[in-house]
Structure formats: C-alpha cells, structure tokens
Design a protein that fits this description.
Layout lengths: L3 E5 H14 L5 E9 L2 E8 L5 E2 L4 E2 L11 E8 L8 H6 L4 E6 L3 E5 L5 E7 L5
Parallel strand pairs: 1-3, 1-9, 6-7
Antiparallel strand pairs: 2-3, 2-6, 4-5, 7-8, 8-9
C-alpha cells in the first residue's frame, strides 16, 4: 500500500505549466517511476499516444502504449480547481498512483481506493 509520493520539485513545476497551457481543458500525463515498499518515486512524465482532452475529461488508448515503460500512474487536471478524484477517476485511473492538479496549481495524490497519499517535493528519488 503506497503512503507517500516523491516528486522532484522541477517536475511539479513542469506539470503545473502543462496544466496552465491546457486550460480550460483537462490534460493528462502518465507518471514514470518506481515503487519501493510504500513509497512511489516519480522520475518523469510521458504524454500518452493519442491523448484527448476536453472540458470535462481527458483520455487515451492504453493499448497504444509500448510495454516496459515503468509507468506507475497518471496525473490529470481538474479545470474546476477541485483536486478530488471522481468515481470515474478511481475506476479508470492508470496505475496505482492517481495525481490530480486542481487548476491552477493544487496537487494531490490518491490510490485506487481514493485514499489520499502524501506528496513530498524532492530533488530526486530520495526522501
């Protein structure tokens, strides 16, 4: 069970900028990293192939992803500003980590059960 998500501060700033550029539409990125015990470490993000974003959702075709990319979750925006997962987010979220950016810059993370995970800004994958 994941309890904490480590994210480089520089990467968070890039995600926030991507969200702002996509506003007022939802945007979606995939999280690449590693999970060790109860800590997920995000190393980079990937723009999924054929991703589509609209005013109320963003989606992609997971079957178009190449194997072995080290994907551990996704991050998407909520243009409304509410950084809470919807039932659809929990049902269709990619991987065990679901990060949500409430526009313009509130970032929260959740597991597939909707339990909030601690987000820790780091310089790398060390706590």
């Amino acid at each position: 069970m994941i309890a904490k998500v480590l994210v480089p501060e520089e990467l968070i700033q890039g995600i926030i900028e991507y969200v702002r550029e996509g506003y007022p539409n939802e945007v979606l990125l995939l999280l690449r990293g590693k999970i060790n015990k109860n800590i997920a470490c995000i190393e980079s993000v990937v723009i999924p192939p054929f991703v589509r974003g609209g005013r109320t959702r963003a989606y992609f075709n997971a079957s178009a992803l190449p194997a072995g990319m080290g994907l551990i979750g996704s991050v998407h925006s909520h243009p409304s500003g509410v950084a809470l997962p919807s039932a659809e987010d929990l049902l269709y979220g990619y991987g065990p980590v679901i990060m949500i950016v409430g526009y313009p810059d509130r970032i929260r993370a959740f597991d597939k059960n909707g339990m909030e995970l601690s987000v820790v800004l780091t310089e790398g994958c060390k706590p």
